[in-house]
Design brief:
61% of the residues lie in helices and 7% in strands. It is flat and about 60 Å long. It is mainly alpha-helical and 333 residues long. Strand 3 (129-134) and strand 4 (138-143) form a beta hairpin. Helix 6 packs across helix 11.
């Protein structure tokens, strides 16, 4: 994941499977704007110095690590080290060297292309960026230097929202490719397809939870920061309503409302229920943390833009769960 944007100040965290992602800290209140033509300035985060493209506070270690590991040999050896590490972890579960290696290769591919999704949006926005392998943290997409990082400070939040969604979008597309490869009558290729499907599901579903500093957590941070307070509440209630409707649809499909029928429906769809519960809780948490003054920023999204991103997030969530967990009800594709 990725933007080292001062308006969304960043720190690094290891993602599931080993990927490392720069993440945003809460925005500071913007200064009061004058009524006519307010200046375009990204709100700074607490403790940040805006002068001359300085590295945001807490980013020193990451930039230090990039400087240490940006050489060609380290960039070539790091993915190989991850491949060996992941293969050892998968072997503990599968006790099969071939399957473990195939799954680890799929995970490395998913990690790398996830970050390339973020880098693609950077490039489209005119910010020069690169994907670095940082052993043992994972992979990270970031502006290539402090000057490009300073340029990213002025990106509109509509662009930042696409930046946050790009990595998971790539993961879901690769899951579809993996599903197709599973039908190929070549054993190792079908196994690689299975790896793309399940490792992509792990990365996608985890980053689609709007909690902590995950991709979707930052996405809803940007969405609520862009909307007025009354619209924040509407988003939270509508999102929760959609999650509740999905749960009711799953129980309704049980056919009968006896205890055992409902218990079976719950157990067989447990993955859906847990994820939907976490999504609803995460949305409310992000809404509660929002400062309505952020909506005054000239970088803020419009209401239709926010709706587009919410719908895109829900679509990605549905596709990822459908591909990995299975259908929510027999009546929904």
């Amino acid at each position: 994941m990725s933007t080292l944007n001062e308006s969304l100040a960043h720190e690094l965290r290891p993602a599931p499977g080993g990927a490392a992602l720069p993440m945003a800290a809460p925005l500071e209140r913007p200064e009061a704007r004058k009524a006519v033509n307010p200046p375009v300035a990204a709100p700074a985060s607490p403790g940040l110095k805006r002068a001359e493209g300085r590295i945001p506070k807490g980013q020193g270690f990451i930039w230090w690590l990039i400087e240490k590991e940006k050489g060609r040999w380290m960039q070539l050896s790091s993915p190989l080290l991850f491949l060996v590490l992941f293969a050892a972890c998968f072997w503990l579960s599968f006790r099969d060297a071939g399957q473990s290696l195939t799954m680890s290769l799929a995970l490395v591919v998913q990690m790398y292309l996830h970050e390339q999704g973020h880098a693609f949006i950077f490039r489209r926005a005119g910010v020069r960026s690169q994907v670095w392998w940082l052993f043992p943290l994972g992979a990270v997409a970031a502006p290539i230097n402090k000057e490009e990082n300073a340029k990213s400070d002025l990106l509109p939040w509509w662009t930042i929202a696409w930046l946050l969604q790009a990595g998971v979008t790539v993961n879901v597309v690769l899951m579809g490719v993996g599903l197709w490869l599973q039908a190929v009558p070549i054993h190792w290729l079908a196994g690689f397809g299975e790896g793309l499907l399940y490792t992509g599901g792990m990365l996608a579903i985890s980053n689609l939870l709007p909690v902590w500093q995950l991709d979707a957590g930052l996405l809803y941070h940007v969405i609520f920061s862009s909307l007025k307070e009354e619209d924040d509440g509407k988003v939270a209630w509508v999102t929760t309503g959609l999650m509740a409707a999905a749960v009711l649809a799953a129980f309704w499909s049980a056919g009968e409302w006896g205890f055992w029928q409902l218990l079976v429906a719950f157990i067989t769809r447990l993955g859906w229920f847990v994820v939907l519960l976490l999504v609803a809780a995460g949305v409310w948490h992000r809404q509660a943390m929002d400062d309505p003054l952020h909506a005054a920023s000239q970088q803020a999204m419009t209401r239709p833009q926010a709706v587009i991103h919410i719908l895109w997030h829900i679509a990605l969530l549905y596709l990822a769960l459908r591909l990995v967990v299975g259908p929510l009800t027999p009546y929904i594709i």
